[in-house]
Design brief:
Elements (H helix, E strand, L loop, with lengths): L8 H14 L13 E5 L5 H9 L4 E6 L2 H11 L3 E3 L12 E7 L9 H11 E12 L7 H5 L8 H10 L2 E9 L4 H11 L13 H19 L9 E8 L1
Parallel strand pairs: 1-2, 1-4, 2-3, 4-5
Antiparallel strand pairs: 5-7, 6-7
Length: 240
């Protein structure tokens, strides 16, 4: 992850989508300058580094369960990154204006209910929560085993989970829909026992093609043309 997250099409698309949902500084409904944001489950810091470059006006921090990954993230970003669990965040009540957590609630070591309660506790009233989650339990693969994913979600399940955790203004949907048929074909051909991880170098032409496709999908989504399926679920919610 540390080697590939700055260049691999998947991470670039994920990070661009999250940053787009935070909005540019000064935009109506966007995250205001000076806001404090936590990347909960920041891995080796790829999203924090990209967000720092895109929104230098924000006050950023990271939390990562794996101490080695946390150290890499801190060195990569120059930001405060703590080692700890999303099940028990080491921060005060209302410490953040926004919490972003990408592909974390799906992990075996995470209690989704506890983590969402902690996200809500650490958000200010009206604070923003952004989640990314892998879609469809039937799409579980060898990659999920490699990264210790034990649960996948539909958009409806994700919405109900957030509403049940006390969040308001919950919105959910899918992304990576244009490439989803290829993902499905790959799962059907390779099966669940495929060796190796989906996080690997791709040929340059494939990186360029997949990046162009995901860029096009984001542009279509901004025009209200989002697909009703995809490889991942996005969630936006506010602390009510």
């Amino acid at each position: 992850m540390a080697t590939l997250e700055d260049t691999m099409w998947w991470y670039r698309a994920l990070h661009a989508g999250l940053i787009g949902r935070l909005g540019p500084a000064g935009a109506t409904g966007g995250l205001a300058a000076g806001s404090r944001l936590l990347d909960a489950g920041c891995g080796t810091g790829g999203f924090l580094a990209r967000l720092k470059a895109a929104r230098p006006d924000l006050v950023l921090a990271g939390l990562e369960f794996d101490p080695e990954a946390a150290a890499i993230a801190a060195a990569k970003t120059g930001l405060p990154v703590q080692a700890g669990s999303v099940n028990a965040l080491p921060y005060a009540n209302g410490a953040f204006d926004a919490v972003v957590s990408a592909d974390v609630l799906c992990h075996a070591g995470v209690d989704p209910g506890a983590a969402l309660a902690e996200f809500r506790r650490c958000l200010k009233p009206g604070g923003l929560l952004l989640l990314n989650l892998p879609a469809y339990q039937w799409m579980a693969s060898a990659h999920d085993r490699h990264v210790h994913n034990v649960r996948r979600y539909t958009a409806g399940q994700a919405c109900r989970l957030l509403i049940g955790a006390g969040f308001g203004r919950v919105a959910c949907g899918y992304w990576n829909g244009l490439l989803f048929p290829l993902m499905l074909l790959h799962r059907l051909v390779a099966g669940r026992d495929e060796a190796g991880s989906d996080v690997r170098p791709f040929p340059a032409w494939q990186e360029s093609l997949f990046t162009a496709v995901t860029d096009a999908e984001r542009r279509l989504a901004r025009l209200g043309l989002a697909l009703p399926f995809g490889g991942s679920v996005w969630v936006e919610a506010r602390k009510s």
